[in-house]
Amino acid sequence: MNSMFSSLERLKIKCTVFERENYLNERLRDWNFGIYHAQAPLEECLPKSIFERLMTAMVDPTRGLSEHDSLPMLNAKTGERLMAIPSPNVLRFSRSRFRALIAEADPCLSKYGFEDGTAVTGSIVIGAEGANSKVREYLLGPEEAALQQLPLLGIGAVESLPADISRKIREINDLYFVSYHPEGVCAFMALHDVPDSNKPETWKWMYSLTWNDKAVKREPPVGPEAIKQEWIFWAEKLAEPFRSAYLAPLPDATLWCDRLAEWRTIPWDNQNGRVTLAGDAAHPMTYHRGQGLNNAIHDALNLCNALDEHHAKGVPISKALAVYEKEMQDRGRAAVISSGENSLMVHDWEQLKKSPIFTMGLGPLGKKGRD
């Protein structure tokens, strides 16, 4: 939600950011993400000087944008193309570079977070601290605010490849692709960094393997060696060149394993306009349709507009936040439900082509998901 705080400063609304990290990009884990339908609100949130330099935070700054971009969707067992989803002018950013760029417009970003016993006074608290939001827990209590675990496990990595394999992977699509296996694994690869466009061995790739552990009746891996063996188990099932791409970084690859979860947004008492939520704190969702960040950017713009209504026009903060929260909660809940349904369906070969990613693509949700 860094873009929101940049926008608040542009509107001359004083704010302080409290970061979990002690310094910018302290977290070792990196990843990248795509903006599919939030380009316009992102531009409105950012200072012009930062927006004009957004390309420097792209996974490949030399690539540029294309109206013809698409996400290939492949059969992971045979390699055949199932379909391609249009993603015109997609912005795909490295998380670490995007945060570093935004930090230039937001001097508060590098502040230290709370220490035990610290107390801070302000007129409004915005919880935008991610899926495990403590502000959400404060508003709703630990039980109602708890994430709902899903029967989906994922292993991720960011690694480089031998030049020949890296070149073959980029020939499939020079940005990203996803493949689905009839046995229930989803394999996603996306370009992450291009230090030298002439040296494929320097390119870095973001990997993801996800599966429904209950459906395939496999125990969750515990510990680095078990995670590596699970990675190998699924990688061995993939068609070439996917198989080689997933096996090549071993045995030295750093692998992260997580259980996927969601929280179906419900209304909260904002204490007369004093506390609210945004982004993953308000609607944490699964990632197989790429909706989390896009919804967060819409939150950022809408919340800034609501605060500006109060700050510049004198609209009572309780009224301004009520308008923001009603739209965001309805949209967020629908996106959470749809994303969760999609994630379960793409790991079921019989349901795959009925899933939202196949029927709706990467665009915004047109209607509420089912309860």
Shape: globular
Succession of helices and strands? HEHHEEEHEHHEHEEEHHEEHHH
| Order of strands across the main sheet | 3-2-7-8-9-6-10
Largest sheet: 7 strands, mixed
| Helical coverage, percent range | 25-40%
* C-alpha-based Rg, rounded: 21 Å
Provide the structure class. Answer: alpha+beta
The counted number of beta strands is: 11
Note the gap between the termini.
27 Å
- Low-confidence runs of at least 5 consecutive residues: 107-113, 367-371
The tally of helices reads 12
**Mean pLDDT, all residues:** 91
What proportion of the residues form beta strands (DSSP E)?
Answer: 15-25%
Report on this structure.
With 371 residues, the chain is α+β, with helices and mostly antiparallel strands. The strands form three sheets. A seven-stranded mixed beta sheet has the order 3-2-7-8-9-6-10. Strands 1-4 form a two-stranded antiparallel sheet. It has a two-stranded parallel sheet with strand order 5-11. The chain contains twelve helices and eleven strands. The radius of gyration is 21 Å and the shape is globular. 33% of the residues lie in helices and 18% in strands.
Topology:
Layout: H1 2-10, E1 32-35, H2 39-45, H3 48-51, E2 70-75, E3 81-86, E4 91-94, H4 95-103, E5 125-127, H5 134-140, H6 142-145, E6 148-160, H7 163-172, E7 176-180, E8 185-193, E9 204-211, H8 224-235, H9 242-247, E10 256-262, E11 275-277, H10 292-313, H11 317-345, H12 356-360
Helix pairs in contact: 1-10, 2-10, 10-11
